[in-house]
Design a protein that fits this description.
Blueprint (H helix, E strand, L loop, with lengths): L1 H24 L8 E2 L2 E17 L2 E4 L5 E6 L6 E2 L4 E6 L4 H33 L5 H30 L12 E3 L4 E5 L7 E2 L12 E4 L4 E8 H4 L7 E6 L2 E13 L4 E3 L2 E10 L12 E18 L4 E2 L6 E8 L2 E6 L1 E5 L3 E6 L7 E2 L6 H9 L1
Length: about 375
């Protein structure tokens, strides 16, 4: 009797343990949420990084070498064409100076000689001793020698000072603005030595001037996107220094040749930026330009997160609800995407309910696929 009771008790305990393990190991059913397709506008964009710079920006260089004598403007000043920027004090070359002084002496000797002949022949002409033609020849030689002396003196003065008497502000020692605009930079100071621009030397930049009312965006786009844009494409330029404001721009240049950067080929682009009076835009502001590659209005769409891709064919599909937690795989044909929403050309309707995969764990998803 006792043995029967003991075996009975053990059997009940064994059954209880088995039932407990069975309940514990039983997988709870996964409850998937669903989402319906919707109609929206999709704009596919790419972003070009770059900066805004003036359309017209030039470097002012001296026409003679020398020392900066005085600077008349400051950075940020507004100037017009012809305004005086700086003056240069010429440091004469010893060899050139010596040659010019010798030319003046020779010209003076010739002038003194022709002057003596001129005065002598003038008296003879007035007395009727020589003909008018002979006198005119002597007079021509005298005037020519006089002009040669004047020219040699001017050359000597230019070598010494960089300008000659009577030249005023047209002298090469006066550095003037060549365009109207804003002085962006003055990289020299009074007393600095400067070199003139010539065939063998780029010359010293005295000032940089730009028209700040005409700005352009300069940036780069990837080779994957450059074939999708063209001149005239509208850009939206946002500046790092100005938040929550975008400036419209029109693409006017696409580089015919790309450059490789970090393993990717980039193409330079430019676009005219339309400014307003709300903010002062400074040259060199970092900027991003949104470029519209494609746009469709009122198209049937779903969120990209709902898409799955077949491991063998790599074709996209979604799981459409057919009953209570029952779903059917349906292939879909996709259109354009903005990275969040994607256009559905065919495969599902507006009334279909699509499984939301990302509401479950990856482990649950793999287990269901294995089942």
């Amino acid at each position: 009797m006792k043995r029967t009771i003991i075996f009975g008790t053990l059997a009940v305990l064994l059954i209880a343990v088995l039932v407990w393990f069975g309940i514990k190991n039983k997988k709870s059913p996964i409850q998937y949420k669903t989402e319906k397709p919707f109609v929206t506008n999709i704009v596919k964009k790419t972003v070009a990084t770059g900066k805004v710079v003036p359309l017209e920006e030039i470097e002012i260089k001296p026409k003679v070498s020398g020392i900066i004598d005085k600077i008349f403007v400051e950075e940020g000043a507004k100037v017009k064409v012809g305004d005086l920027i700086a003056t240069i004090r010429v440091v004469p070359n010893v060899q050139s100076l010596n040659s010019a002084q010798g030319n003046v002496k020779n010209a003076r000797l010739r002038f003194d000689n022709t002057k003596t002949l001129y005065n002598r022949n003038k008296e003879l002409f007035e007395k009727g001793v020589i003909s008018k033609q002979d006198f005119e020849t002597v007079e021509l030689n005298y005037n020519s020698a006089k002009q040669d002396l004047l020219n040699s003196k001017n050359n000597l003065e230019i070598i010494r000072k960089g300008s000659a008497s009577g030249m005023g502000k047209t002298a090469n020692t006066y550095v003037k603005a060549e365009i109207s605009g804003t002085v962006l930079e003055i990289p020299v100071r009074k007393g600095n030595q400067v070199i003139e621009a010539n065939t063998f030397n780029a010359g010293t930049t005295i000032a940089t001037i730009a028209d700040m009312t005409k700005m352009i965006f300069e940036g780069k786009v990837d080779e994957a996107d450059v074939g999708k844009i063209k001149k005239g494409t509208i850009l939206e330029v946002s500046l790092g220094a100005i938040e929550k404001k975008k400036y419209p721009a029109k693409l006017n240049f696409i580089a015919p040749k790309g450059t490789e950067e970090n393993g990717a080929v980039q193409f330079k682009i430019k676009g005219d930026v339309t400014l307003d009076d709300e903010y002062f835009i400074r040259a060199g502001y970092s900027a991003n330009a949104d470029i519209v590659l494609a746009k469709k209005d009122s198209v049937l769409s779903i969120k990209e997160a709902l898409l799955q891709f077949d491991k063998k064919t790599e074709k996209p599909y979604v799981d459409v609800k057919t009953g209570d937690q029952e779903f059917e795989k349906k292939d879909v044909e996709l259109g354009i995407s903005d990275g969040i929403n994607v256009e559905i050309i065919s495969g599902v309707t507006k009334e279909d309910e699509i499984k939301i995969w990302n509401k479950t764990s990856k482990k649950d998803k793999e287990e269901e696929n294995n089942d």
